[in-house]
Design goal:
single chain, alpha/beta, 8-stranded mixed sheet, 8 strands, globular
Amino acid sequence: MIAVVTGANKGIGYHIAEQLLPSVTLLILACRDLGRGAAAAKMMMTTKSEYADKLRVMQLDISDSTSIDTFVASVGEIDVLVNNAGIAYKNADPTPFKEQCLPTLKTNFWGTIELTEKLKPKKVVNVASRAGKLSQLSPERQKQFSSDLKSKDQLFQLVREFESDVAEGNHAQNGWGNSNYGFSKLGLIAYTKLLSRDIQANCCCPGYCDTDMTSHKGPRSPAQGARNAVMLALPSCSLNGVFISDEQVSEW
């Protein structure tokens, strides 16, 4: 089994990779910063040295199409893609809500999907979040993303509509939530369910973990959070089109 884990140089991504390593023939740590990726691999080898020949580090910035194309051309065919890379603005960040929208969606939604569609793995695990729950939307919007959602093109149009409404400052009155991060993960969950019609695809919430993204406020260890993605990535998993939280199927 050849597996790719994005955002693998730290936090939950690092622990996903570490836990998957014994079960693969090749594991690719896909990291935006190659130096940090190499440092992560070196750290991993302090406890997993017997798997050194299974580990490879490659540069990948999922917000950059050129980087994605270079990565895909170099990697070739893979079995499992764990889309862990993502960004989240801190609550105290002074960047206006409107200006946070496009960068957040570019990485967490559009970039993740671009990599997935171009890499064409046999199995996909998308690291999402409980913040992506349907309840952030109005009842009408919830239907658009669930029972009424028939195609990726339809989903992409809805996401562009959100981006446009945020830019115009009328997203709340049009039934959208008030979290760019939460919406990016909602879109990713919806994409996962559509993708599961063609290949095995699932998504998960690692929980509120002690990572840089949470400013180390989360009570859960990243190693524990990583188990949600690992269980979905292993060959023994037969689940498809589900959202996992606390290592069990959860309602979206």
